[in-house]
Amino acid sequence: MTHAAVSSADHSSVDSAAFLREGRAHLGIELGSTRIKAALVDDGGTVLGTGSHAWENELVEDSWTYSLDAAWDGIRDCYADLVRDVRERHEVELTQLASFGISAMMHGYLPLDADGEQLAPFRTWRNTYTADAAALLSRTFALNIPLRWSISHLVHAILGGEEHVGRIDTLTTLAGSVHQRLTGRRVLGVGDASGMFPIAASGTDYDPELLERFAALDEVAGLPWSLSQILPEVLTAGQGAGSLTAEGAALLDPTGALQPGAVAAPPEGDAGTGMVATQAVDPRTGNVSAGTSAFAMVVLEGRLSGPREEIDLVTTPAGHPVAMIHTNNCTTDLDAWLGLFSRFAELIGHPVGDEELYGALFGAGAAGEADAGGVLSYNYVSGEHQTGVPSGRPLLVREQEARFTLENFMRSQLYGAFGALAVGMEALLKDEGVQLDVMYAHGGIFRTQGVAQQVLADALATPVAVGESAGEGGAWGMALLAAFTARQQAGSDRSAGSHRDDRAPAAESLSDFLAQQIFASQELVTLHPEESGMAGHATWLEGYRTGLQVERLAGEVLD
């Protein structure tokens, strides 16, 4: 199979330099759970520069959060890193962009007042204390409303009588908040909006019937606002979402070099950018994004049998229905274990770099027994709704007769990273009978070629494809959405001084744009599930399900 990973054409350094000097490049910035990343691309998706900034969430007063000050410090540092990279690669000072887009972790709670000031700490998707609110909404809507959705967090605050609720002017996401400050527009891409409140069948706006049901709840009576007033406007991929203002340019680049005017793409969630970065936007395709959390997105051909707690119904950035399997935990505990091995290597006088360390230990995992020899790993740094674990504690446990080798330990760690995801995907693929031709995967865990990819293929009994962008997909996916927006706007708005291509078509689907302009000629590695691997994983998963009782008890007795 062929498929584009990063680019559709080769560009000489002279061409790229001219492209950059003319202000024709497209920028994507994604605020992920552990890194803020930037990718700058040309019209064909070729990466012209990258930047990054490391950050971490904090547990403050029993809530997982990131401060907005830390977010902005990180965004500026990430952009400065991108500028340095462009200067070193192309000997060009970055002063102008054709388009840009902001992406971030979906869901959570970020209320603002009429002046745009934050009313409460940003409560991330990782918080699971919204069970009562989510249950109330699920009953009211006859639809599964997940704990992490923004509407669940809002109702949690209402039920708790939190003082700030009456002063809410805008309820948004992290991406929406950043976009608003850069452009002055209070909007969201439909993919990100679908993690706030259910989207209508049209795929273009919030469900009006469910908005009415919400308004009829006794619990919200007397509030000085309606939900439709405080939620951001919904936009689909390619629609204009404003432009970079002078104030926004100064926020992004305090040196003053960056000029305003770049076209803004609708801000999106990390699930949507992952779908774009892997071209998983058509029915019978899906993608897995693996990082601190993991989620699988499967584009649906038809309706499911009914509401299911394991499955969220969201959308692609173009508004097509998607079944989402989300897990709160993925690589955090695995990274911690590998950090322990790295420290051991330092102590014995043989330090190793991350690439070598991960390659060696992932290779050991690939050589482990297919059932991991009776070794079980639970990566639950936080609670995990997919498996009914309210409060997570990372746990390694093995049977008395287990074959506890490094190979089996690492095999179990890799299985554990996708353990909760495998449980959720069974509901979709087996119970609901959803058909998949291929799952595209991206995230740092796939950078070691073939190992985590084969594990996932065996776990899902589905071919898994990985491209060159697997480790850096989100920011690149957002940059592609920015390029698509610039291309779409060129067809309807040929304003003087624009750097858009006047030959661009006025109307083009996101699917066609990705297939024809980005993913037309590039290589992709696809691994198919193996019989021995599927059988071994099934045995391991059975033990994993049984051992969940131990994991739940650990959360009860260990503070």
UniProtKB/TrEMBL annotation:
Pfam families for this protein: FGGY_C (PF02782), FGGY_N (PF00370)
Keyword terms of this UniProt record: Carbohydrate metabolism, Kinase, Transferase, Xylose metabolism
Domain Carbohydrate kinase FGGY C-terminal: 287-485
Gene3D superfamilies hit by this protein: 3.30.420.40
InterPro entries registered for this protein in UniProt: ATPase_NBD (IPR043129), FGGY_C (IPR018485), FGGY_Carb_Kinase (IPR050406), FGGY_N (IPR018484)
Domain of life the protein comes from: Bacteria
Carbohydrate kinase FGGY N-terminal domain: residues covered: 27-251
Listed transmembrane segments: none
CDD domains, per the entry: ASKHA_NBD_FGGY_BaXK-like
GO molecular function: kinase activity
Coiled coil (UniProt feature): none
Similarity field: Belongs to the FGGY kinase family.
Stated name of the protein: Sugar (Pentulose or hexulose) kinase
Organism: Brachybacterium fresconis
